[in-house]
Structures are given as structure tokens and as C-alpha cells.
Amino acid sequence: MPVGWAGRLLGLGLLGGLQGAVGWWMVSSGLSGSMLDVASYRLATHLGLAFVILGLIAWYVFLLGRDERDLIQARRFSQGGLCRLSNILLGFAFVQILLGALVAGIDAGRTYNDWPLMAGAFLPPYPFELEPLRRNFFENAGLVQFMHRIAGYGLVALGLYIWVQARRSSHIDTRFRFNALIAVLLLQLVIGILTVLYMAPWEIAIVHQVLASVAGRLSWDQEAMMPRGASTQRSEELATMASMIHARRTDSRVGEWLAAIDEKALDQVAQAQIRHIRREFDRATRVPGALEREIAVQSSRAHAIWAEARADDDFSAFAPTLTTLIDLRRQ
């Protein structure tokens, strides 16, 4: 087991136990009185927790299943803006999944089976007929289906916008995954429309739910590929490496070794190599270690800033960073 993963895996097991309790809580709502179906609120809770568990499992698989070299490469080209948009898309998809659970819980998918309108109108008839008003957003079949439809359109629109931004990424793996994500979202939209038109047959409904799971995992994958704070972590790692390299180059033993060498006893190739080592040693001893570290930090952070500036076609956003790098190099 990798170091630091015991708590994560234990938490996953605890969520699995909680899911069992929530499952019984949901089923028990259909075992009392004349009720034949489970309560929609409890169904949404059960399904939402299931997707959280599934998402965590997928996230852990993405993190552990990738070569460290691939993760470093992905973090090198990570874009903070794209990562934030992916998180927004993931949250939006989760809300849409919960709305889907409410639709299933009250059989709202079989109430209005025309598209793109509902009973010939944009809004369904009597969308706010229940009292108090808030009940309509959870129990009114027409309004719940309407919300699920509109959220689906919004999700696809957001996905298309993010896909356009992701196509500008210089990392081929990022572009590939967003291509897969938008393909799944568009297919999910088509399956959702067919579910409405054919009165939610179980075969199409199952495909609809499976695609929701795939879309959620693809969105979550972007968090594994482009984790928040990766740029800061990477800059600290490179700064540490720069400090170690500087310490090696300025080691006093290197100076003693250079002073003890008799260049006249060496051939021309060896003499050229010694002169190169001497120049590097002299240069390294003139540059403070703190400056080398700062150059490494700023150069690393510049990658992410440049990627965002290029994606937004706003190169002026990179100008302050470029000025800082030039000043450091001059020093």
C-alpha cells in the first residue's frame, strides 16, 4: 500500500458502510402502508452517495494507475483555469444526477413525452400547483422533468465551452480526455431525449445512467490530471533541485580539484573540458544559491501563467512574469 493511503482507503470503506445504511433507509420507505415505490428524496440521497463513492474509487485509480512521469508531464502543462472549469462541470454533473434521481423517484420521465416542448409549451402545465411552493421543485413531475431537461442543456453547453478551451492545451492527453468527455456528454443528451420520447423504457434508462457515470468519471479525471496547487508544488520541487545542483557546483572540493590539476599534462580535449568545468564553477560561485532557487520557482510558475495567457489570447497577462524572469536572469 502506498504511503499515506491508509486513511483514504479506510474512509472509502466507511462510506461503503454508510451506503448500506442509506440503502436500507431508502428501501424502508417503500415497505410501509400502501406505498409501492421508495421515497424520491431517499433515492436521490442513495444515488448521490453511490456516485461519490464511485468517483472517489475512479479518482484513486487515476492517481495510482498512472506512471509518475506521466503525472509530472500533465502537471507541467496544467492550466488553473481549465482545472477550475472541470471542477464546476463535475459539480454541475452531480446536481444533474440528483435531479435524475428525483425524476426516477416520482416517474416524471413518463409524464411529458414530447420534445423539445412539454405539452406544446416551454413550461409544463401547472408547474407550481403544490403547496408550499418548495414542494414543486421536488415533487411536481412536470417541473422536475423540466429542471432535468434545462440542466442537461446547460451541462452540454458548459461542456462545449470547456472543450473549446481544452483544445488549446499543449498536453495531448488533456485534449484526448476532453474529446472523450464531450463525446459522452453529447451522446448522453441524445439518450436523454430518447428516454423522454419512448416513455423511459428500462433499457434506455439504464444506458442513460451508465453514461452519467462515465461523464462524471471523465470530469473527475481532470482533477487527477490537473490537481489544484500542482504548479506551487512543482515550483517547490524544482527549487529544491536547483539548490541541490548549486550546492554540488559550488562545492569547495571542486575548487580544490581544479586547482590541483596540471592542464599541461592533458590532451587538448581534456583541457577544453577542464576549462568548461572551471567556467561553470566560477559562474556558480558568483551566483547566490537563493537567486538560483528563485529563478527555478519563477520559471516553473511561468509555465502555468503562460498556458492560461495563451488559452485566453491575453498575452499581456504574461508580461509581468516575463519581466520578472528577465530581471532575475540579468542578476
TrEMBL record:
GO CC annotation, single: mitochondrial inner membrane
Coarse class of the protein's main subcellular location: membrane
Catalytic activity reported: Fe(II)-heme o + 2 A + H2O = Fe(II)-heme a + 2 AH2
Assigned keywords, A-Z: Heme biosynthesis, Iron, Membrane, Metal-binding, Oxidoreductase, Transmembrane, Transmembrane helix
GO biological process annotation, one example: heme A biosynthetic process
GO molecular function, one term: heme A synthase activity
Annotated compartments: Membrane
Cofactor: heme b
Mode of membrane association: Multi-pass membrane protein
Known pathway: Porphyrin-containing compound metabolism; heme A biosynthesis; heme A from heme O: step 1/1
Protein name: Uncharacterized protein
Lineage, opening ranks: Eukaryota, Metazoa, Ecdysozoa, Arthropoda, Crustacea
